[in-house]
C-alpha cells in the first residue's frame, strides 16, 4: 500500500547516504570535538618543594625515586597508591585544603601540581601510560572517533583538568577551576578558528559535564552560538549522587580490594569536586531520606547537618556558601544538548548506618541508575528544562551500561559515534526526519 512512500524514502535515504559518504571522505568538514573527562579521568603530576614535610620515613622527598630532571612525577594514577604505606603518602600529597580567610582551596604545603598535555587527548587515553591495559580511560572512545575521520590534534582535542578543584557560586573565588574554564574557552575558540570557523562539539564524561554547563552559562549567548555546535554529556551526575554520601561517611575504595576505604576517606573529603557531587536539593526529593541512622535520617536538604554529624565540620561552610547556591540552578545553555547514559544498573539509593556509626560500611538499598549515578540525577535536565524556549534536549538511555563502561561498551560507543555523525551530517538526518 505504501509502496510509493517507500520509494521516496529509499530515494531520500540514498541521497542522504551520498551526503554522508561524500562528507566522511573529507576530515575538514567535520565539526571539531573536544573531550572533557570526568573526575580522576586524566593524569596529574606533582613536584615536592623544600616546604614539604613528610609524615613518615617512607613518604620522604625521595619517594617516588623516578622523577623527571625538574622533579615532576606522576601523582595520578600511580599504582603504589594501592599499597597501604604508600596510600598514606598519596593522601598527603593529593589532599587539598579550604582556607576560610581567602575562601578558596589550595594544595598541601610543599606540593606543586600540574595537568600534563592540556589540549591533547594524550592525558586522558590512559590514567597511566605505562599500565595501558588496566588504566585505559577514553582510549576506546578516541579510537572510535578516529575511525569516523577524526584526527587527534587536528580536529579532536582533550581538556584534562585538576579534578580535585571545583567551581563555586558567584562571588566566591575558585582560582584553579576558573582557570580551567578560561583555558577550555580558549581551546574551543582555537579549535573552531583552525577548522574554518566551524563550531565545536563538546563531549564530556561524568563530572566534565558539570564544568561544561557552567562554562556555557558563564559566557554570552552570542559566544555560545558562534562556537558551540552541540554538547553531548555522557553519564553526567547533574544533581550529584547518593554514592557521594557514602564516600564522605565511610570512604570509597572504588572496589579495589587492597585499599582500606577509611584510609582514602580524608583525601576524598578534601576534594572540592566531591562536595559538589553531594545529592542536590534541586534534583533529589527533599523529603526522601537518603541516609538513615538510629538517630534520624538525612535528605538532600540536610547535607550540611550530615557533614557535621559524620565528623567533617570543615566541610559545612564551603558546602553552604560555595556549593549549595551553585547547584540551585541547572541553567539552560540554548545550544543543543544530548545526554547519553546507562540505566538499569543497581545504584545506591538509601544507606543505613547501624550502631557502630559512620565508620562501618552501610547496608545499601539499590535503585535505578548507572551503578554510580541515580536515575533522578542522570535525568535532571529533562525536568529542569521542561518547556524551555530555544533549548533542544535529546536523551539516550542505554540499558545495562554502567557509569564508566559507557566509554568502552560497543553498543554505547556505537550510539555516541552515531550521535556525533548525526550532528556532522544534519542535512541527511533532517531529510530522514521529514520522511
Ligand atoms: C578566534 O577567532 C576570533 C575572531 O573570529 C578571535 O576573536 C579569537 O581571539 C580567536 N581565538 C583564538 C583562541 O584564537
Ligand atoms: C547517634 O547519637 C549518639 C549520641 O549523640 C552518637 O554517639 C552516635 O554516634 C550517633 N550515631 C549515629 C549513627 O549517628
Ligand atoms: C529564543 O531565541 C530567540 C531568537 O534568538 C530570542 O529572541 C528569544 O529571546 C529567545 N528566548 C529566550 C527565552 O531566551
UniProtKB/TrEMBL annotation:
<dbReference type="InterPro" id="IPR003386">
    <property type="entry name" value="LACT/PDAT_acylTrfase"/>
</dbReference>
<feature type="signal peptide">
    <location>
        <begin position="1"/>
        <end position="24"/>
    </location>
</feature>
<dbReference type="GO" id="GO:0008374">
    <property type="term" value="F:O-acyltransferase activity"/>
</dbReference>
<dbReference type="Pfam" id="PF02450">
    <property type="entry name" value="LCAT"/>
</dbReference>
<keyword id="KW-0732">Signal</keyword>
<protein>
    <submittedName>
        <fullName>Lecithin-cholesterol acyltransferase-like 1</fullName>
    </submittedName>
</protein>
<dbReference type="GO" id="GO:0006629">
    <property type="term" value="P:lipid metabolic process"/>
</dbReference>
<dbReference type="InterPro" id="IPR029058">
    <property type="entry name" value="AB_hydrolase_fold"/>
</dbReference>
Amino acid at each position: 500500500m505504501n509502496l510509493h512512500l517507500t520509494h521516496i524514502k529509499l530515494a531520500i535515504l540514498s541521497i542522504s547516504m551520498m551526503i554522508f559518504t561524500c562528507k566522511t571522505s573529507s576530515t575538514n568538514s567535520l565539526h571539531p570535538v573536544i573531550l572533557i573527562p570526568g573526575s580522576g579521568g586524566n593524569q596529574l603530576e606533582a613536584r615536592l618543594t623544600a616546604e614539604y614535610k613528610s609524615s613518615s620515613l617512607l613518604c620522604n622527598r625521595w619517594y617516588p625515586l623516578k622523577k623527571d630532571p625538574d622533579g615532576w612525577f606522576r601523582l595520578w594514577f600511580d599504582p603504589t597508591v594501592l599499597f597501604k604505606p604508600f596510600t598514606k603518602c598519596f593522601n598527603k600529597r593529593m589532599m587539598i585544603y579550604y582556607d576560610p580567610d581567602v575562601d578558596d582551596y589550595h594544595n598541601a604545603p610543599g606540593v606543586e601540581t600540574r595537568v600534563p598535555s592540556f589540549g591533547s587527548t594524550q592525558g586522558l587515553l590512559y590514567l597511566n601510560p605505562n599500565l595501558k591495559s588496566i588504566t585505559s580511560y577514553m582510549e576506546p572512545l578516541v579510537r572510535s572517533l578516529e575511525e569516523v575521520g577524526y584526527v587527534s590534534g587536528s580536529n579532536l582535542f582533550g581538556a584534562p583538568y585538576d579534578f580535585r578543584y571545583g567551581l563555586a557560586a558567584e562571588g566566591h573565588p575558585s582560582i584553579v577551576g576558573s582557570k580551567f574554564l578560561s583555558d577550555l574557552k580558549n581551546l574551543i575558540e582555537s579549535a573552531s578558528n583552525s577548522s574554518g570557523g566551524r563550531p565545536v562539539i563538546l563531549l564530556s564524561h561524568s563530572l566534565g559535564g558539570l564544568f561544561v554547563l557552567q562554562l556555557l552559562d558563564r559566557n554570552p549567548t552570542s559566544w555560545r552560538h558562534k562556537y558551540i555546535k552541540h554538547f553531548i554529556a555522557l553519564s553526567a551526575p547533574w544533581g550529584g549522587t547518593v554514592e557521594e554520601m557514602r564516600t564522605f561517611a565511610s570512604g570509597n575504595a572504588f572496589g579495589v580490594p587492597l585499599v582500606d576505604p577509611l584510609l582514602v576517606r580524608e583525601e576524598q573529603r578534601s576534594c572540592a569536586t566531591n562536595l559538589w557531587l553531594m545529592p542536590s536539593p534541586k534534583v533529589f526529593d527533599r523529603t526522601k531520606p537518603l541516609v538513615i541512622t538510629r538517630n534520624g535520617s538525612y535528605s538532600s536538604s540536610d547535607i550540611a547537618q550530615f557533614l557535621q554529624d559524620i565528623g567533617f565540620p570543615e566541610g559545612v561552610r564551603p558546602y553552604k556558601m560555595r556549593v549549595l547556591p551553585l547547584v540551585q540552578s541547572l541553567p539552560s545553555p540554548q545550544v543543543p544538548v544530548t545526554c547519553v547514559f546507562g540505566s538499569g544498573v543497581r545504584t545506591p539509593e538509601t544507606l543505613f548506618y547501624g550502631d557502630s556509626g559512620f565508620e562501618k560500611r552501610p547496608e545499601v538499598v539499590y535503585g535505578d541508575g548507572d551503578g554510580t549515578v541515580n536515575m533522578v540525577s542522570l535525568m535532571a535536565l529533562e525536568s529542569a528544562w521542561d518547556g524551555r524556549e530555544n533549548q533542544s534536549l535529546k536523551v539516550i538511555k542505554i540499558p545495562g551500561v554502567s557509569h564508566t563502561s559507557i566509554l568502552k561498551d560497543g553498543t554505547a560507543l556505537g550510539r555516541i559515534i552515531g550521535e556525533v555523525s548525526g550532528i556532522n551530517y544534519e542535512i541527511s538526518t533532517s531529510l530522514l526526519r521529514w520522511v
